[in-house]
Amino acid sequence: MKKACFLFLILSLVFSCRKNEKLINPKAQVQTNLSLPNDSGQSKFSIIIHGGAGTIMKKYMTPEKEAAYRQKLEEAIRIGHAILKNGGTSLDAVEKTINVLENSPLFNAGKGAVFTHEGTNEHDASIMDGKTLNAGASAGTSIVKNPITLARAIMEDSPHVMLSGSGAESFAQEQGLAIVDPHYFYTEKRYQALQKLKDKAISKSEFNIKDSFYNRDMNDSKFGTVGCVALDKHGNLAAGTSTGGMTDKRWGRIGDSPIIGAGTYANNNTCAVSCTGWGEFFIRGVVAYDISALMEYKELTVQEATKEVIQSKLTKLGGTGGVIAIDKNGNLAMEFNTDGMYRATMNDKDDLYIGLYKN
């Protein structure tokens, strides 16, 4: 009888300790559940890229040129998708995907960057981590092969968010990033586009910013940015943007691409956004952050928020361009108010979509 009572007492103490442990740490079970990918046991992930928006119309596109753009968009997005599928981070997927676009002369970023008024190539880029809200950006560099990689190094290996010009280049060299001769970025097509604009604008008073964007012969029928947003299996969002800016830009002009909240934004609570278009208007409208804010404060979906910002707010300002965005649940949005936008998406089911034109 004494043994039975003693055994009952021991069991009661054990049960009581376990119950108290749950009361002390009520989140323990919740945290365990949150670590599960979803009810099906398979993690959701997705990725979107853009290669610029503007006067992209089929009547201006040769079959060979269209095939080249489609091939490069697919190559780039498959790089990022493979990283996500294998459990890699959204930051890695964004950086490596953009590297492919930066290394291609087809896009106005990295190798294919347009020329400034002085006949140089100046690059801007930014990247943001939706988990920590940490961000990095570079502006006005001319010798760093992959500006998006520099932006990430600034985010992770410096106490700053944005570095510019020679200072950013010195930092890149200290970090051991790939450095190239400025002539590496030269492409004849972009150089001839500059000459055409300079012929039209022989004095400061005659400079017309619209010529850099709207003349399809001068700026390859599009605005000049590449970007990527991704959601990884761990539930983390990231966004990145890289550009050569606008043809014939002067006075150290910097657009929205390296500005966090204007051209790039990521927040695990809402979405990840990368923008392309007339940068001055994206800066004034704080476009990337505005999309996130509409989702957070007005509880709009990512599709509703991107449509409101691009088709209403940006258009009323007089701005043109587009955005790509992914929300925290993997829902995708691609919104633009131009004739087209180079874009591609892939999800956890390996579905691939590539688009160039409005319809």
Can you characterise this structure?
The protein has helices at residues 2-24, 28-34, 63-85, 90-102, 147-157, 165-174, 188-200, 209-214, 279-284, 287-297, 302-317, and strands at residues 46-54, 123-129, 135-141, 162-164, 226-231, 237-243, 264-266, 271-277, 321-327, 332-336, 340-347, 352-357. The chain is globular, with a radius of gyration of 24 Å. Helix 3 (63-85) packs antiparallel against helix 4, helix 4 packs antiparallel against helix 5 and helix 10 packs across helix 11 (302-317). The strands form 2 sheets. Strands 4-3-2-6-5-1-11-12 form an 8-stranded mixed β-sheet. Strand 9 (321-327) and strand 10 form a beta hairpin. The protein is of the alpha+beta class and 359 residues long. The chain starts with a helix and ends with a strand.
Brief rundown of the structure:
It is built from eleven helices and twelve strands.
